[in-house]
Structures are given as structure tokens and as C-alpha cells.
Design brief:
With about 290 residues, this protein is α+β, with helices and mostly antiparallel strands. The two termini are about 25 Å apart. The protein has helices at about 25-35, 50-55, 70-90, 95-100, 105-115, 120-125, 150-165, 205-215, 230-245, 255-260, 270-275; strands at about 10-15, 45, 60, 140-145, 170-185, 185-190, 215-225, 280-285.
Length: about 290
């Protein structure tokens, strides 16, 4: 599916659901949300983070014992990102201040998880290492991202359920807020893995530093689609528009989330998260140009 001529005009709508805790049947939640609204040709966009939480792909970092390299990487965040790479990547002053005070004990445990599940190139980043994410999760939990093949299978299965139960043919897109960086319409690079053809993924810190230092266009990462030949540029446009209407739940990162509830970084509870509006599902509809 490759756009030709003028880009498609797109319109998006997000759907509020209850917070998806581990064990939630997210497919049923999605079907309930879009029943009577989805139309043939729509893009059905689902938050990867919400899926991973529902599937229980969580690690409690309070139980993780960091090694020497992980402890070194926690200090690396304070000094390399706080004073060198952060300014090079044009990070905001408030973000730099947070990085310079990066918590060493909790940070070392987080880096140990990143090393174990995403590798060194990802662990060298200051956050969202390889798609590992702690936002919109309680206590010391982080969510592990879907592997590309798993994400494709989930997207295909959900598209089939929509076709079978709602009698509608949609393209399911699983998306993550981690940025993919684009140079024009031809080159797309991402720090994290993705199954979308045309996006070079798993570049870790290299893609992040290059994309931000050169101020390349950054958009949410489409992780996988039920349409195997979905054009990368179109997938990025759809993911960006969906993010705008879906929002960020309780916060973009653990600092923002903790500040919202007035607690320590690991003091957020399941009940706090359930009290916030969550919109993990969006429909993006191509519209005819006038």
C-alpha cells in the first residue's frame, strides 16, 4: 500500500477505555470501543504500551540486582546526557535538570533491564531504551516492548477479529511514542525495533543522537501493521495523527507521572492510573480532498 500523488488527507478520533491492567482482554476492549464507528479502509491504531501492559509483559525493577556495567550506565546518564549529549540533542532545560539528578539506585536497576532485553546500544540512551517504558505504570514496573514478529501477528489477529465480528476491513497499526527520525520521505531511522518496511530500526543511541542533533523530523514509531506492504511514510503520518488525539495518559515519563499525583517516582499506584482518562485506541480515516 503506497501513496501516489498528493498525500492522503487523514482525520483521527480517539476512544476512551478503562485502564488496561495485566490480564485485560484488550481485543475485546478495542472491539467494544470502535463498534459502529469503524469503516472499511480505516486505520485502527493501538498503543503498544497498553497492549504490553494488558499482556503482562512487565518487569518489577525493585527486584532487579544491577551489575557493574548497569551502575556505570546510571552515572553515564547523569554526566554524558546531563552535560554533553543532552545539550547536543537540544533537550529542554527541565529535562537536563532531571537527567543531572538521575536516581542512581533505581537507574542502575533500569539499565540492567535494558542491557538484558535491549542491548548496549539501547542502554546507552537516557530513557525508553529499545522501547522499554515506565510511563503509565505503577511502582517500579516497566513494560517490555513487543518483538516485531509478535507485533505483526497481534496486528493481523486483531484485523481478522474486526473483519469477522464487526464486518469491517481495517488496517491495524500498533504504535509507540518513541520517535522515528526522517530525512525527507526516503530515510527513516529508529532507536527501537520495528516491523515496518522502510524504517531502519534497532539503532539505539545512534539514531536518537543523530535525529535530535540534526533536528530531523521526529514522529511516533509504527511498530507493526496488519498490512505487510504499508508504506513507511504513510504509517508514520497515521501514527503521528493518532498520537495527537490519544494523548499520553498519566504522563509522558515517570517524572511527569509522579508530579501529576504528587508522589515519589515509584509511588504511583494502579488506582491512581485507573483514575486518569486513557485513550489507547484511535481510528484514522482517509478523507477525500475537496
Amino acid at each position: 500500500m503506497r501513496p501516489r500523488g498528493r498525500p492522503l488527507r487523514l482525520r483521527a478520533r480517539a476512544f476512551r477505555t478503562r485502564y488496561w491492567r495485566p490480564g485485560t482482554d484488550f481485543c475485546r476492549e478495542v472491539l467494544r470501543a470502535v463498534r459502529g464507528v469503524a469503516r472499511d479502509g480505516n486505520f485502527l491504531v493501538i498503543s503498544e504500551k497498553a497492549i504490553c501492559t494488558a499482556l503482562g509483559r512487565l518487569v518489577d525493577e525493585a527486584r532487579v540486582r544491577p551489575g557493574s556495567l548497569a551502575r556505570l550506565l546510571a552515572r553515564w546518564v547523569r554526566w554524558a546526557w546531563g552535560y554533553l549529549l543532552g545539550p547536543l540533542c537540544h533537550l529542554r532545560p527541565e529535562t537536563l535538570a532531571k537527567l543531572r539528578a538521575y536516581p542512581l539506585a533505581e537507574g542502575a536497576a533500569h539499565k540492567q533491564v535494558a542491557l538484558r532485553h535491549a542491548g548496549l546500544l539501547a542502554a546507552l540512551m537516557w530513557g525508553s531504551e529499545g522501547g522499554i517504558d515506565a510511563s503509565n505504570l505503577p511502582y517500579s514496573y516497566v513494560a517490555l516492548p513487543l518483538r516485531p514478529r509478535e507485533a505483526v501477528e497481534l496486528a493481523e489477529q486483531l484485523a481478522e477479529r474486526v473483519r469477522r465480528e464487526l464486518k469491517v476491513r481495517v488496517t491495524v497499526l500498533i504504535a509507540d511514542s518513541d520517535r522515528t527520525y526522517s530525512l525527507g520521505r526516503a530515510l527513516h531511522i529508529s532507536p527501537r525495533p520495528t516491523a515496518i518496511k522502510g524504517i531502519v530500526g534497532e539503532l539505539g543511541v545512534l539514531a536518537y543522537v543523530l535525529g535530535n542533533a540534526l533536528r530531523l523530523r521526529g514522529r511516533p514509531t509504527p511498530v507493526a501493521a496488519s498490512e505487510p506492504d504499508l508504506d513507511a511514510e504513510l504509517a508514520l503520518r497515521v501514527a503521528r495523527l493518532a498520537e495527537r488525539v490519544m494523548g499520553h495518559g498519566a504522563g509522558r515519563d515517570v517524572w511527569e507521572m509522579a508530579a501529576r499525583f504528587g508522589v515519589e517516582l515509584t509511588g504511583v499506584t494502579w488506582e491512581m492510573l485507573a483514575s486518569v482518562e486513557h485513550r489507547p485506541v484511535a481510528l484514522v480515516r482517509p478523507c477525500p480532498r475537496r
